[in-house]
Amino acid sequence: MYWILLIVSLALNATGNLLAKYAMKDAPSNVGMLSLALYAITSWKVWLGIACFGIAFGGYALVLTKMDLSLAYPIMTTGGFLIIITASFFLFSEHISLLRVIGILLMIAGIWIISRT
Asked: Which of 22, 75, 28, 70 is nearest to 49 (CA)?
């Protein structure tokens, strides 16, 4: 049950980041910080992203009642990196260099090692 909650929390956290990027990619350029802040706080995408972050935090906090932080945190962060990198490639046409691919493979190897101990 807690593994499922960890995965859901991870997905919601990544979704919050993706919504922030999605909202802010349409932000007006060459405006002051006040105008940019006003744009952000009036965007439903930003608010939905914040909601995703909040729900993810609540789920992650519950996971930590039963799972070691030294296992849950690396899975949460690495899983988030993997989702964000992959989604950014498909949704925002961001480039994934060979060095990033190597980094992804090293992160996966690291999580595999951490989960075995």
From this structure: 22
State pLDDT tens for residues 52-98: 999 999 999 999 999 999 889 989 998 999 999 999 999 999 999 99
Residue 32 to residue 21: CA distance in whole angstroms: 19
Contact 4, 59 (CB under 8 A): no
High-pLDDT (> 90) share of the chain, %: 66
Distance CA 80, CA 20 (A): 14
Rounded distance, CA 37 to CA 3, Å? 37
Distance of alpha carbon 80 from the chain centroid: 4
Q: Which of 86, 79, 67, 69 is nearest to 112 (CA)?
A: 79
Beta strands per DSSP E along 53-95: none
Which helix (H) or strand (E) element contains residue 20? helix 2-24
**From CA 39, how far away is CA 1, in angstroms rounded?**
39
How many Å from the N-terminal Cα to the C-terminal Cα in the chain? Answer: 21
